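Protocol step 4 of 6: structure prediction from sequence.
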Amino acid sequence: MTNMALVVLDTLRKDYFDEHFGWLPGTRYENAYSPSHWTVPVHASMFTGRYASEVGVYANHEKLDCSQEVLAETLSSNGYTTRA
């Protein structure tokens, strides 16, 4: 089974990431687009693969609370150990 880590850094400039995390191996995405400017809807999209509005998360929500399976649950049901 392949090991993986999803590193999410909010409000960190790329030059600081490169300076402090350049040692971290893996795939890097130089061009990415965000479905929102607000953290919770972006995480909802990232962890469900759907637009935040499709899972009932909008700006100013403080937590992700949806009935759809999220990434960690999918990975866990496929034998991965997940942590947050």
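Step 5 (inspection) to follow. The helical segments are 14-21, 39-48, 71-77.
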